[in-house]
C-alpha cells in the first residue's frame, strides 16, 4: 500500500522513520554520537514495524535498505568486511522489496567494487565501478537537480580516484567529483547539502596534497583556501564533524606553510 492509503498510525510511523533517518545522517559534532545512533535505531524500529504490519510498504523497505547501506559503509571504513557482506545482502533484499532505487543500488555496487579492488581484483573492480559511475552520470545528465544522484556520483568518483595507480587519473576523477558536488552546493536546499559541502572540502585537501607533491604550490594554496572556506561554512551552519577536525587543522597548517 502507498503511504497515503495507510491508517493514521502507520502514516505517522512512516514519517517518524523517515525523519529519524534523515536527521541521523548528520555528522557527529561535539560528541553527539549517541543521539544520532538513537535516531538511527528509532528509524530502524519504526520501519521494521511497518514492514511487519504491511510487507508491501515500499517506503519502509527503502528506509531499511538505506539504513543498512549506511551501516555497511561505516563498517567498511572500520574494516569489518564480514559485517559489510551481511548488511549489503540484506539491503539488496530490502531495496528489491521497496521497488528499487538506482542511486542506492549504485551505492551498494560501489562498495562491492571497492572491496573487490581491496582484495586484488583490480580489473573487475574498476569495471564494476565504471558501470555504476556511468549509471549515475546518466541520471545527473537527465536531471541535474537530482542532488542524491549528484552526491553519490561524486562519492564514487572520489573512491575511484583512490583506485587509480596514476596520479593524473586520480586528479581527473577528483575534479569531476567536485564538479558534481558544485551543482548540489549551488542548487536548492537538499538533504545532501551537508555531505556535499563536507566531501568537497575533503577532496580539495586531497587535491592540494597532490599538487604539493607535484611542486605546484600555487594550485595547492588555491585548493586549501577553497577547502578552508568550506570548513568555515560548515562551522557556522552545523559545526565541524568531530572526526574531521584533524583534517581541518592540517588544512590551516599547510596554508601557513605555503
Counting DSSP H or I runs of 4 or more residues, the number of helices is 11
* Gap from first CA to last CA: 60 Å
For this structure, the quaternary state is single chain
Question: Percentage of helical residues?
Answer: over 70%
Radius of gyration: 19 Å
- What is the beta-strand fraction? under 5%
The assigned structural class equals mainly alpha
Largest sheet entry: none
- Global outline: globular
- The ordered H/E elements are HHHHHHHHHHH
- Poorly predicted sequence stretches spanning 5 or more consecutive residues: 1-7
Account of the 3D structure:
The protein has 258 residues and is mainly α. It contains eleven helices and no strands. The protein has helices at 8-24, 33-53, 58-77, 81-97, 102-118, 122-142, 147-163, 167-186, 193-214, 217-237, 245-257. The longest helix is centred in the last third of the chain and has 22 residues, at 193-214. The N and C termini lie far apart (60 Å).
Provide the descriptors you would attach to this structure in a database record.
single chain, 258 residues, mainly alpha, 11 helices, disordered N terminus
Amino acid at each position: 500500500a502507498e503511504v497515503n492509503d495507510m491508517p493514521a498510525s502507520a502514516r505517522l510511523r512512516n514519517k517518524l522513520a523517515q525523519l529519524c533517518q534523515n536527521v541521523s545522517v548528520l555528522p557527529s559534532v561535539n560528541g553527539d554520537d549517541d543521539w544520532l545512533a538513537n535516531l538511527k535505531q528509532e528509524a530502524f524500529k519504526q520501519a521494521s514495524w511497518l514492514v511487519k504490519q504491511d510487507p508491501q510498504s515500499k517506503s519502509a523497505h527503502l528506509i531499511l535498505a538505506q539504513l543498512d547501506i549506511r551501516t555497511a559503509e561505516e563498517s567498511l571504513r572500520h574494516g569489518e568486511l564480514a559485517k559489510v557482506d551481511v548488511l549489503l545482502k540484506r539491503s539488496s533484499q530490502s531495496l528489491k522489496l521497496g521497488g528499487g532505487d538506482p542511486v542506492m543500488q549504485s551505492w551498494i555496487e560501489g562498495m562491492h567494487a571497492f572491496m573487490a579492488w581491496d582484495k586484488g581484483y583490480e580489473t573487475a573492480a574498476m569495471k564494476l565501478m565504471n558501470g555504476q559511475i556511468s549509471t549515475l552520470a546518466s541520471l545527473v545528465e537527465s536531471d541535474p537537480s537530482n542532488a542524491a544522484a549528484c552526491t553519490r556520483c561524486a562519492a564514487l568518483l572520489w573512491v575511484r580516484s583512490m583506485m587509480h595507480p596514476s596520479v593524473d587519473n586520480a586528479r581527473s576523477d577528483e575534479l569531476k567529483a567536485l564538479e558534481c558536488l558544485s551543482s548540489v552546493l549551488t542548487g536548492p536546499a537538499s538533504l545532501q547539502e551537508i555531505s556535499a559541502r563536507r566531501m568537497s572540502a575533503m577532496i580539495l585537501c586531497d587535491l592540494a596534497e597532490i599538487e604539493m607533491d607535484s611542486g605546484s604550490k600555487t594550485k595547492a594554496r588555491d585548493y586549501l583556501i577553497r577547502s578552508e572556506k568550506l570548513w568555515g561554512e560548515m562551522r557556522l551552519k552545523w559545526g565541524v564533524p568531530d572526526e574531521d577536525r584533524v583534517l581541518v587543522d592540517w588544512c590551516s597548517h599547510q596554508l601557513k606553510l605555503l
